[in-house]
Amino acid sequence: MLPETLPAQVAAASSASLRLKPRALTGRGGSWVVALAVGVSLLSLLPIAFVLGVSWATGWATIEALVFRPRVAELLINTVLLVLITLPLCILLGTALAWLTERTNLPGRRLWSLLAVAPLAVPAFVHSYAWVSLIPSIHGLPAGVLVSVIAYFPFLYLPVAATLRRLDPAIEDVAESLGLKPWAVFFRVVLPQLRLAICGGALLVGLHLLAEYGLYAMIRFDTFTTAIFDQFKSTFNGPAANMLAGVLALCCLAMLTVESAARGKARYARVGSGSAREQRTVLLSRGTVMLGLGLQGLTCLLALGVPLLTLGRWLIAGGVEVWGGGELLPALLQTLSFGVAGALLTSLAAIPIAWLSIRAPGKLQRLLEGCNYITSSLPGIVVALALVTVTIHFARPIYQTTLTVLLAYLLMFLPRALVSLRAGFAQAPVELENIAQSLGRSPLRALWLITLRLAAPGAAAGAALVFLAITNELTATLLLAPNGTRTLATGFWAMTSEIDYAAAAPYALLMVLLSLPLTALLYHQSRRTAGR
Amino acid sequence: MNSKVPSFLKRALLVTALLSAGHAFAADGVGLLVYNAQHESLTKAWVAGFTEETGIPVTIRNGDDTEMGNQIVQEGAASPADVFLTENSPAMVLVDNAKLFAPIAPTTLEQVDAAYRPAHGQWIGIAARSTVFVYNPAKLAEKDLPKSLLDLAKPEWKGRWAASPAGADFQAIVAAVLEQKGEAATLDWLKGMKTNATVYRGNSAVLKAVNAGQIDSGVIYHYYSFVDQSKTGENSKNTQLYYFKHQDPGAFVSTSGAGVLASSKHQEEAQKFVKYITGKEGQEILHSGTSFEYAVGKDAPSNPKLTPLKDLDAPKVDASKLDSKKAVELMTQAGIL
Q1: B28: helix, coil or strand?
Q2: CB contacts, 8 Å: B212 with chain A
Q3: Mutation choice for B interface testing from A63, A134, A236 by most B CBs within 10 A
């Protein structure tokens, strides 16, 4: 999906073709790695097992009564409409902005491309908070679509822009020499080459739409996730909440299937000697420049201006007072420690699977990766419900502990660590590991001393992504946080629930500030992999 | 990146990481554990006073009434909670029915007016709140006010009132309607509500919407308006409160409860805590603080700004019979949840 997967795939393919199978896999250390990888993957199946188990225990009659009722139809219509309207708008906006910043002579395009990624530093529910305090009456589907597009379009912008940068202009030249008009070249030649990027980005946005709670709760738009939360508030993990979670999980799996069907089987890599030529910059007419600047400016105003201005307004209104009270610092420390511990744990858990996918790719490894991928597509509310139910009945010692929260983060964010770590492993030559073993190091020690050291930058980038996700996580944290703990996100939520917008502002500001460096890292990475 | 970062910096980063990871685990709570569904600010004031007096540290876990009630029932005998505080009675009944409460000490029971605690003494009232109809006089004239809460299900109220049905407060009101009017009438009323009412999340959000003129009126508890008035009044200055009185279901006064878990390993401290909040100092916090909930202690005055409890002419509802499970089921059936 994201650009950093590519080097990994290339390296995996080349190492397989050279038949440089590592010795480790046959030895004792190798079976350990396999066992660990299988263990992590089995763990990640827990939420799915929970949904199936609960459905089984509930019985068909109750399921029928709880699932086939008008309220569920209402939620389904809401959720489907939200996805069907938001996704095309995100694709349109993301692609238009990417084309403008990558392929044209739009003034200030470097700056615009940075500004198109920056909204990611603002958590989705803070976007919603900004809008609802700017226009208090805003609610329902139109509001849901507006705020969703603004909060999530960078997920499309990033991969589309990265792909646009890498396209070989020769194909476009051929199309033009055959008589196609520029717009026809775009739609018949450029756009089809963006298919993978658009599919991947759209899937990411779609899954966020299904999983998000805070954004929609604040603007009074009911989706499955908000309804599950309402049921949880009334019944804890009652059957109605669990059944809605089952339907939501099915929606996510349906979305994964649609995306994998839409990806198609076409080939996108270029063949030919040498490297691709520099792309031509499209010279825009004055009218188009004004139009382009208008679009960039408007997006920027809505996606950055509104949150920053309202945040600023509430900070001024709240004055020094809202910074006192002594709750902000503990919440910040709690968020940092959850983030760091979660990122460490998730990265560690990703090592065996990442190692297998580079050193011993095959059916088993694909299956294991698939398990993790599916679970991470499930909304936080489903994962949290599963963990609450399982720990309360079967694992009481870890019930309400930090370990359970970290486990939820692990299940939800493992692929983020995996993707970067895999890229790191791919760049560490297997020969070095083999030599270390031939010099008497055990396989695990060789992995630790050689490969992990070389993969450290990739691991760090992955850990940073996980950290970012944890900083802004609300739903699962609300359900699972240990007694007496509060993070920035849950503190923010407690304040806004009481309509104390001024007291919520410092929490929002701290979340944005924490996210900024990592958003910058994401931006930097996407530029770097483009090879310039 | 590898070569540019000095090794001492890397080590410093590693140490910070490990320390904060350690911090994450060290944060798991200590002392008396209170499952708190009351307003956090009120419970914090009680805890501060209690800890100052006794030196016993208290950890608070926040949640909603029936969420935490169901949670305690699932946790059963191994519940980590020592004390359970709610905003309304139904969640207390839920835990009581599961036989998870230890009896409240008789001296503590004596501190509270008999109308605000069940006769069996398994839990005790700590505060009270009244249902109120909040309206915007610019949108709704005084002569058009409804006579009864049940009138709001009639067609002429379509799109004209708001509520927060996902919250325990409104669910307690539904439980009271159920107790007074029976299942069939309650379901009919809820179906009317599904058509007529606009749903918000939280009573504060309802008040804010009525104040802004987005909706004519709403059903909430009385103190939201008083709390806002005591601050800036920006979310209530355009609203009026109307009490149904006449023992109407809409005049329901809800009792907030406290119970000591039978499974608690700190029985003595837990009983002390309940004694403190129902005693003179605890009830004084309701009188002089900013919660604006009614005090229920014997001879404990409520905040003078409030309409006195005895003037509200509330219906006689046995708090120990309020059935939250049935109420939520009916609301689910009516498509509200």
Answers
A1: coil
A2: 136-137
A3: A236
pLDDT tens across A399-451, in order? 999 999 999 999 999 988 888 888 888 888 888 888 998 999 888 888 888 88
Q: How far is CA A468 from the centre of its chain?
A: 10
Closest Cα in chain A to B15: A340
Q: How far is residue B162 from each of residues A139, B206, B288, B318, measured CA to CA in Å? A: 14, 6, 30, 27
**Chain B residues with CB-CB distance to A336 below 8 A:** 20
Based on its alpha-carbon atoms, the radius of gyration of chain B, rounded to whole angstroms, reads 22
Residue B113: both structure tokens together: 């007016």
- Determine the residue of chain B that is closest to A65 in CA distance: B333
Query: Do residues B146 and B123 share a domain?
Result: no
Tell me if A412 sits within 8 A of A43, measured CB to CB. Answer: no
Q: Which domains does chain A have, with CATH numbers?
A: 1-15+24-44+319-532 (1.10.3720.10), 47-267+283-308 (1.10.3720.10)
pLDDT grade for B9, boundaries at 50, 70 and 90: low
How many Cα atoms sit within 13 Å of A340 on the Cβ side?
Answer: 18
- What residues of B are in contact with residue A222 (Cβ under 8 Å)? 199
Q: Are residues B189 and B265 in the same domain?
A: no
Beta bridge partner(s), residue A441 = none
CA angle A124-A307-A409, nearest 5°? 25
* Chain A environment of B203 (Cβ under 8 Å): none
Report the chain B residue with the minimal C-alpha distance to residue A389.
Answer: B74
Query: CA angle at residue A157 from A155 to A158, to 5 degrees?
Result: 70
Q: Among A28-42, A84-98, A409-423, where is mean pLDDT lowest?
A: A28-42
Structural domain that includes position B55: 32-128+254-307
Number of compact structural domains in chain B:
2
Same domain as B271, residue B143: no
Q: Is the domain of B290 the same as that of B211?
A: no
Determine, for residues A456 and B2 on separate chains, whether the beta-carbon distance falls below 8 Å: yes
ipTM exceeds 0.85, yes or no: no
| Residue B35 phi, psi (nearest 5) | -80, 110
| Rounded Cα distance, B162 and B144, in Å | 16
pLDDT tens readout for residues A247-291: 998 999 898 889 888 888 887 777 777 777 888 888 889 999 999
Dist CA B185 CA B178 (whole Å) = 8
B166 min Cα distance to partner chain A (Å) = 5
Cα B276 to Cα B258: distance, rounded to the nearest angstrom: 11
Residue A134's region, left for phi above 0, alpha for psi from -120 to 50, else beta, is alpha
Q: What is the dihedral of CA A207, A212, A215, A217, to 10 degrees?
A: 130
Q: Are both B167 and B287 inside the same structural domain? A: no
Comparing CB atoms, the residue among B17, B208, B337 nearest residue A340 is B17
Q: Evaluate the CA torsion angle A304, A305, A306, A307 in order and state its sign.
A: positive
> How far is C-alpha A361 from the chain's CA centre?
24
- The tens digit of pLDDT for each residue in A50-72 reads 888 888 888 888 888 888 888 89
User: Residue B8: its pLDDT value, please?
Assistant: 60
Helix axes A154-166, A109-117, angle to 10 degrees: 140
| Tokens coding A393 | 């009945």
Interchain pair B24, A337: CB under 8 A? yes
Residues B46 and B191 in one domain: no
CATH of the domain at B137: 3.40.190.10
pLDDT for A111-143, tens place per residue? 999 999 999 899 999 999 999 989 988 899 999
A109 burial level (CB within 10 Å; 0-12, 13-18, 19+): middle
Q: Is the model more confident about B61 or about A6?
A: B61
Nearest chain A residue to B235 by CA distance is A499
